[in-house]
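Check this:
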Amino acid sequence: MPLPSTTFDPIRWESRRADKYGQIDIDSNRYLAGAALHGRTLLAAIRRDGVRITDPGTGEIVARCPRVYGRSQSTLRDPELAMPVLAAKPGSWRESSIRPDFPEDVRAWLDEADSKRLAQSLRSIGAACAAAGFGNAVAAASRAIADGPGSALDESTLVTLALRARDTDAGAITDDGPDLAGYDRFITCVCSIESGPCERVDVFHVSGRFWSTSACGEKRTPARPAWTSFPS
């Protein structure tokens, strides 16, 4: 019997009405959906490791929070929702509920920052969070700190690094250039049908067109190309 084509995703769905603070109660724990949603009926998708809160009227995902088992004394919140508040009130950094969500190196660096550097750095992280999400923003901050940020974390640098992290498949920030392997499908070997295609070894330019040698070492000329030609 074949395995299912999709992974089984066990979810428990709960409909909850947000209180005046925009919080909903799930298993005796409070999850913040956002103050703007107070009094609204929201839909929660409860998974083993997280809670996703959706506005059923619009279908918009309004918060993603880690799931907590047992009783939590504090309200669980999506770091992306809390980051703008923290950026606007940097003095609350040490008491912030999302402080543990920051990587250890970023948290330690911010702990040691003076009030001016802390305020500017949190605003920069907030801008990167708005552009590319909390996870990518703090990854960018970690990278910037490792490279030596100077007096404070620069907003333009963090936003650029966060967008790079968001747009890479693995979500990691690297110094590698763009991967052009996807363009290889446009280069088709026509060297030998009987022996199979050869691998490209070298590419050269002749009379306004690109050709290459074959892996077997036989040189090809424009009259007998080993690879599909491209207009200049």
Summary: The mean pLDDT is 78.
